[in-house]
Amino acid sequence: MSADIVNQLKGTRSDVKAAATTIEWKFREFSKGIGTNDAYPIRFELSVLRQLCLALKDNLHQHADLYCDIVATMLPHMEPCEEKPSLWEAHLTSLRYIHHGLCQEKTLKECQKMYGLIRSQRCRLQEEGDYKFYLDIHLTHFNGIHLQMQKQTLPIAATDQLYDALEAMGVLFDTMRQRKVAKNAALLVQLNEALFMKRSRGFLKSLSALPSECTVKMYDPLLKLLSCNWGIPSFELSNQFSEYLGLVLALMHIDIFSIEAPLQQQLALQLLRICRDLYRNISPQNYAIQLLYYYVKLLYGREATPTFKLTYIDLCKKFVAFFEHKGATHAKEQWFMDLLVFLQRVQTLLLQSSSKAPPFDIFWQQLEGDDSPKAYTAHFQLLYGCLVAAVNVVRSPLGTSCTSDACKSIRRHCLLSFGMCALEAFNNWQHTTEKMTDRTHHKPFLNILVYTMDVAKNTKCLGPTAAEIVKLVRQLALVIERVACPEQMSLLLPLMEPLQQIRPLIAIHDMHCLLRRIYKASVHCQSSDMANRLQSSYLAAQTNPSRLHTQLCVHYHNAKNSEKCVYEWHESSPLLNPLTPAQKNQLYDVDLLAVLHFLSAPPLPLLQSLLRCRRNDYHLVLLARKMRADSEMVRQCEELRSQLQSTALQQPLTRMQELAIGHASVSVLLEALEAQKTKVSIKETAENSLETFIVKNNLLELNIKREHRLVALATGAIAGFAAFFQRADQEPLDCDETPIDWEALIDDAVAAAMALSSMGYMAQADDAWLLLLRIGRMLDERFTYLRALTHFLAQDHPSPNQQLQLSEEVDRAQELLNDLWPQLKNGHFFKRHHTIVMLCLCHMASYYARQDCLCHAQLLLLQAEELRSEFDERLGKSDIVLITIQTVRFRLEYQRKKRSSGLPRMPTPLRQLDTLVDSVRNFYGLSSVDLGALQLLLADLVRESTECAANRLTERLGFTGIMLNMVLQSGMALRAIEVLISWLWMNLQMEYLDKAQSKLRLLDHLLAIKPLSLTLVEQPSTKGVPAIAAKDDPKSNGISELTSNMLLMQLVEPIRKQNQLDVATPKFPAIHDSSPSSLQLQRYVSKQEAPPHLRECMQLQCIYFIVGCLHARLSFLKRENDQLDDFYVRAGSWLQEDSARTATLGSMHLVQELYHVNYLRYRKKHKEAIRYAEAGLMLKCQTVDINYGFNFMSQLKTAQVELRPAGKEKAKTLRRALAFNTSPEIKGRKALVETTAKTKASASARKTPRFKIYTELELRPPIGSGSSSSSSKSGIENTPPSDHVDLNACQAIEISDDDSAFVPASAAAAVAAPLKRSQSVPVKATKTRSARVRNQLKVAEIIELDDTVEVTPPTTSAATAKRYQTTDARSTRARNRQAEETPATTRGRTRGKVPELTPQPETVSLRRRQRN
Ligand SMILES: [Zn+2]
Asked: CB neighbours of 768 closer than 8 A, spacing ≥ 6?
């Protein structure tokens, strides 16, 4: 070829055109036979092609169309040259090169043109190896066009090019077969490389999408070609094994992906059949190929056959057996590895479910049905067999090696894949009921999974995002989700441990999903322990505390889950969550709180489990709160307490330790309180058997010393809480610190405060409630706050050193209450909350009353009353709110400092007290706080009722009995002492000296001064017997009549000691010897001689002093006067020693002063008596019975009278008064009573004492005189008394005996009790004759009649005057009043309520009264 053409081909377009013309001319010459020898045209062509190749290589594509023209000119002239086969080969190579060069995006047109030119020429294989040039061109063209179509740079019409290429390949294969080209190995490699095995699924998919009528033109010739066995050597076939398998695999894909008819072409099966023949003589591949052939044939089955399962099972078994026998020998051989990888890929294909109609549907459907478990067992066994054999796989062209540098393993991924297939197959399996219980498939299935997970654990390339792990988790989740019976659950359990091992590979979220499903499945667990363990794993995996709390509550809602706490189950769970210490703490804390707060009564095993797992002392004490019945717990608390206390000696405690000590102390305290309880019936605490009772019931331990420990515990607890609160307030709690159970803290602090209040230790209780007030305020715990405030509001004598601005708190509380009380009915609150709010209203009323805001107080009470009436459950019941309202009303009246005419009249205090006693007896507890509140109320009521009764010369033991019974039952010493002091006071007032003596012994016992002993108790009881006998004797010998008359007389004739005439007097000498009165009185007033345990506390000092005062009074009444002078002097200095202490005495100070004055008068020290009486009048107590004023005044007046000459005195109008405490309320029915009284009085052999009654002018106390303005003659000192005398208060009338010896004693007892009514009447009533009963009934009648006309409201002055006239005229009638007050009040209970405030029922009776 000339150099011109070479240059022209490399030159410009016109150059190339010129060259083309030259070449065309040249070939025209050739065709004419010019210039040809044998090889010339082809040589020329090759040289031109060579230049074209070079030009393309230089990327001169712009002339490609011209190049094609040139080739088109040359090609038809090309023939293989017989002598020189290399020329044909060079020709094909050049064509391939040019086509390849053109096969790119910018020259697609030319490429297609060139391919058309090549295809238009007959396929000529001069040498066997020539086929690969053709094949290469076809494959390149196919793939090139396919690629461009994928890129969408070619229209759909270009698909024709694909058909052409396939058809051309078919032609080539036919040509090869005809030419008997036995180069299968290279062919397979080339095909697998470019078209089949090595191509992606996507490519195979698009290949399978081509219409079968086109593809068949390639597949048919190919398979025909492959089926020809031209004596290929067996070693070569052995080497080709993997290529064959690769092709089979690719064809399987094509079969499956075929859209129009999957599996219809059965290309893979055809090829396998060919292989079976090819490998017939090649062992051991022949057997494997046969098995594969039958296996695939079975898979390809497109119709159900009855023997399918049997065949499949048989085939699987054969595979397994093959692996077992040959595995060991051939494990390391390539073909064996390839076989296993092939099987793995087939299994994966088997589960293809991408298309709408899964290709292997029929296969899977045939596995279902009757013997399905067996078939699946076989399937799993096959997979397991493969898995075991695949352990030796190292490499295989069929597998794809892992891209991770750390892994690069085919084996591991192959093994994992088998596991996945097993899981997926299991999940595809339609489980029916009978299949569920079948366990045959469990073993192979579990084997596979355990193996798989073990592999996964050691596979380095796997992580939470690895596709295999994601799939594994998803499939596992499906398995778990399907669990619906214990058998299936048993399948799951062996997987837990391997699962736990691969846990680091699983994403947290995925693991949670698994745990949640396991949690749900665990209900089918046969072992409840295991179920709990599994559930705990899910629960513990919750890291959000609130969600965790919710879940735990749901968990504990099931009563079965009460054996152990979640925390403990989790510790032993097979799926233990890898929790950080902080998370562990959180889990425990939330678990604990869920148990403590969600369960009202947590079961003991649960608490014990929590206890075992506790993480600090705080947990111990919180748990101990719920296990207070457990003595071991209390012991642990005690231990902890002493341990912390000894720590505190060395270093300051942390705030959590302080908190722990607080809770621990409360636990010990409550246990101790519980331990000292006794069951006491009300009968046993009768007055005369009290000492016996104490001894017999082993209450010898009951004293103030024992109580000291409890007080120490309670104050210790409060101190711990206070220290904690102080610091909790100052520094924020760490986030990983145990959350504080404020509810528990408040509960326990309230328990300690209530214990202190109930035991009566006021200073300590104040501290406790003050702390609670602060906590309640800080935490916005409204009810705690109100409850604490109520404590302070209820106090008559607020402690002076209190750090509390009560007025500020009241303002705050009022706002709070305004907000709160209207909501009370909406159902969000408990009954105790109702009680707390209403009690606060009541006590706020008494607070305002103390501030002299009486109207406000009344309004508050009314509000409480109205609020109460809104709760149906309280209607008609005597609940604590009602009792408190009554109590506060009683106090308003009783403690009124001055008489205000502005307020309507109320029933007399005594009457109100009787109503109250009835209410208390009918007490109906509605909530947990009621009884405690009642106990506190009663403690005050005992004192107040005693004072009120004593100041009115009557006896009220209702509260005393109830309270004593209550405190003895709960083993409280100080409260018992208080009750006994009240009782002793009462006894002294009534001058029951033996009883008083007994009280003193009891007090000495309770104060731990001199314990009661058996001998001591027996003395009075043995002496009691003759006394009772003496009582009974008169019955028989005719004196009974007299006695009964006397009894009747006692009702109306309150003559001191008369009633004790026969009974009590003989006891005096006996008691005298053994009584504590022989002890020195001065011990009470000397600090040195007081017992050490009473010196510490001011309250106890006061108590001891009061006992001393009463003891002195007893001595006085018994006329044992030798120590009294000294005592009163010392008492005086005791009182001056400490003003705060003296203030704590309250009204007992007044009582003491009265006793003192009385004694001075007895000693004829009248001037001193006057001085003390005047001083007594000046004493101011904040709330005090008005009658103290009267009593002082009467002492004063008497002393003044006694100072004067006797003659002057006679001039005064003295009236004989047999009744004390005359009440002007008494009207009518006087005559009968009076006559009876006179008769009986004369009948008694005793000389009737004479009484002096002072004019009201003289008796009028200085206080309250200013308020008498309602009277028409007000303001003048010596006018007759009008409204300023409080009728309700039972105006004191001084009694003076004519007999000088009696003067002091009787006078002192403005006091001296008239009657033993409350005791003697009921006792006698049961014993005496009916006549007497009738008599009593008569009296009762009188009383009732008497009652109806009492308390006339001071509507007009005329009415008032009239009333007083009648009162004065029949002053003797007053004596009845004294006796009758008690029974009468039961009827008149409702009377005298504030008219404008009173509800309807009252107004009726009011009108009636006004008519009168
Ligand atoms: Zn890997």
From this structure: 714, 715, 718, 749, 752, 753, 756, 757
> Can you tell me which residue has the tokens 């705050």?
812
The rounded Å distance from CA 507 to ligand 1 centre is 18
Burial of residue 643 (CB within 10 Å: 0-12, 13-18, 19+) is middle
Backbone dihedral angles phi then psi of residue 1253, each to the nearest 5 degrees: -120, 130
DSSP string of 395-464, one letter each residue = --TTS-----TTT--SHHHHHHHHHHHHHHHHHHS---HHHHH--TTHHHHHHHHHHHHHHHHH-TT--T
Q: What is the pLDDT of residues 929-967, one digit of tens each?
A: 888 899 898 888 888 888 888 877 777 778 888 888 888
Q: Each residue of 1275-1322: pLDDT tens digit?
A: 333 333 333 433 343 334 433 333 333 333 333 333 333 333 333 333
Distance (Å) from CA 829 to ligand 1 centroid: 64
> What is the C-alpha end-to-end distance of the chain, expressed in Å?
159
- Cα(464) to centroid(ligand 1), Å: 13
Distance in Å, CA 399 to ligand 1 centroid? 12
User: Which CA distances in Å does 288 have to 245, 329, 1152?
Assistant: 11, 14, 120
| Eight-state DSSP code of residue 11 | S
Q: Rounded CA gap, 1267 and 1280, in Å?
A: 14
User: From ligand 1's centre to the CA of 416, what distance in Å?
Assistant: 10
Candidates 1186, 1161, 1184, 1181; CA nearest to 1172 is 1161
Average pLDDT, the chain: 77
Q: How many CB atoms lie within 10 A of CB 697?
A: 14
In this prediction, residues 192-219 reach a mean pLDDT of 88
For the chain, the 3-state helix, strand and coil shares in percent, each to the nearest 5, are 70, 0, 30
Q: Compute the distance from residue 414 Cα to the ligand 1 centre, in Å.
A: 10
**Stretch 274-292: mean pLDDT:** 89
Residue with tokens 């290709």, as numbered in its chain: 359
Please provide the DSSP assignment of 231-255 as one string.
Answer: ---HHHHHHHHHHHHHHHHHHHHHH
| Band of residue 378 on the pLDDT scale cut at 50, 70, 90 | very high
Token look-up 């046993």 returns 684
pLDDT at 1128 over 50: yes
Structure-token pair, residue 1245: 């052999």
Ligand 1 centroid to residue 409 C-alpha, Å: 5
- In the reported structure, the alpha carbon of residue 403 is separated from the centroid of ligand 1 by a whole-number distance in angstroms of 7
Angstrom distance (rounded) from CA 541 to CA 539: 5
DSSP helix/strand/coil, 151? coil
Instruction: Determine contact, residues 818/795, Cβ cutoff 8 Å.
Output: no
Q: How far is the CA of 408 from the centre of ligand 1 (A)?
A: 5
Tell which residue, 693, 691, 685, 707, has the closest CA to residue 973.
707
The label of the residue with tokens 């052939």 reads 293
Residue 402 banded pLDDT, cuts 50, 70, 90: confident
Q: How far is the CA of 1029 from the centre of ligand 1 (A)?
A: 110
Place of tokens 């083993």: 971
More confident residue, 186 or 1048: 186
Distance from the CA of 405 to the center of ligand 1, in angstroms? Answer: 8
Question: Measured in angstroms, how far is the CA atom of residue 326 from the centroid of ligand 1?
Answer: 28
What is the CA 990 to chain-centroid distance, rounded? 57
d(CA 894, CA 901): 15
Phi, psi of 811 (to 5 degrees): -60, -45
Beta strands in 299-417 (DSSP E): none
The CA-based diameter of the chain, rounded to the nearest angstrom, is 193
Q: What distance in angstroms lies between residue 206's CA and the mean position of ligand 1's atoms?
A: 28
Distance 455 CA to ligand 1 centre (A): 11
Distance from residue 391's CA to the centre of ligand 1 (Å): 15
Q: How far is the CA of 410 from the centre of ligand 1 (A)?
A: 7
Q: Which of helix, strand or coil describes residue 1253?
A: strand
Whether the CA torsion 801, 934, 858, 836 is positive or negative: it is positive
